[in-house]
């Protein structure tokens, strides 16, 4: 696997390279997409039975449900990218 990985809660890890968008699940269009993805077997539930706080869309048209908020996931992604840039600058 060539991409960076980010922890999205409760032992679940996701490749940053494959993420297209992260959204909260509150709106009707997002709820509709979740239902359609469930029917098409392209829904991945990574909430471990907890409340869904983020819906992640991937390049492979999968929809992933996460129990962490979109802000938390985006923050973890930003930290990973910042660390990678520092490694490049430091010559590591």
What is the compact description of this entry?
The protein is of the alpha+beta class. The chain contains two helices and six strands, in the order E-E-E-H-E-E-E-H.
Describe this entry's structure for a reader.
The protein has 92 residues and is an alpha+beta fold. It has one domain. Helices cover 36% and strands 29% of the residues. The protein is built from 2 helices and 6 strands; from the N terminus they run E-E-E-H-E-E-E-H. The strands form 2 sheets. A 4-stranded mixed beta sheet has the order 3-5-6-4. The protein has a two-stranded antiparallel sheet with strand order 1-2. Strand 5 (54-58) and strand 6 (63-66) form a beta hairpin. The protein is elongated, with a radius of gyration of 14 Å. The chain starts with a strand and ends with a helix.
